[in-house]
Amino acid sequence: MEKGLILWENVDLIQQKDNFISYLDVSNGTLRTYKEGLKSFFEYLINNNIKHPTRNDLRGYRETLKESLTIYTINSYLTAIRRFFGYLEINNIYENITKDIKSIKVSKIPKKQVLSLEQTKYIYNSLTDLREKCLFSLAITTGLRGVEMANALIEDIQIYNNEIVLWVQCKGHNTKDEYVKLADNVLEDILNYVGNRKNGYIFISNSNHNKGNGVTTKTLRLEIKNIFRRFGLDSDGFSLHSTRRTSATIAYNCGADIKEIQQLLHHKSMNTTSRYVNQSTRDNAKTEYNISNAVFC
Prior knowledge:
Blueprint: H1 13-23, H2 28-47, H3 55-65, H4 71-90, H5 117-126, H6 130-142, H7 146-150, E1 157-160, E2 163-168, E3 178-181, H8 184-194, H9 217-230, H10 240-253, H11 258-265, H12 270-284, H13 287-296
Antiparallel strand pairs: 1-2, 2-3
Helix pairs in contact: 2-4, 6-8, 6-10, 10-11, 10-12, 11-12
């Protein structure tokens, strides 16, 4: 323990967490993630009667998370804990036990499945429910994230540069300052679903306690998941994010370059987009078969 740092049992956890949360200057989404991560970590400490956590305790916590959470959630929780102990260290409150604690390595091969063009057409043409048809066509053609669709308003549909667009608040943004273009058939699906409604959320809740208000991202994820299940796509790999990857894949196979796909998906980094495109290239490659034909034929 470094000189001047206080032992854990002399620190008010809740107070320090509250001070840390107040200190942060991050988006609301990041703030929620940090709160969830710290809550999970504190519960682990309490359940295991740990009053003075060490680096080994943090490693044990990380292993416990592997039993129930995804790699992405675990790493986001670890990021929250790193920021928290970094805050405690610079204020001479507690030793930073997160130093050199590694995140879980994420495979470069995406676990989310991508729909083929044939599957995409078949599902869309088979849908009869107006809401499902609207959700599926919007997700597939624009690559929007669940939260972006959940927050979309009817009045966000506007004419911009002589085209019909939907203004969206993208990840990490504080305002709806980005847009996606709405093809004629997609706009028709939206209008058929919203009916006489002129404003408010495009996708409204049907639950008794929230009826008429906007839906949650969780609800949209479940609705897409249920669509996939009805068409026999019941593995964990098929989810709302599959529609986003499918958008990128179809765009790439139709000749879009990586910059166009980056703009479509509103990725900050070209490297993120490259992972989508590189996997599409790999999935479509026939290299092994060509080698086999050369050798055995």
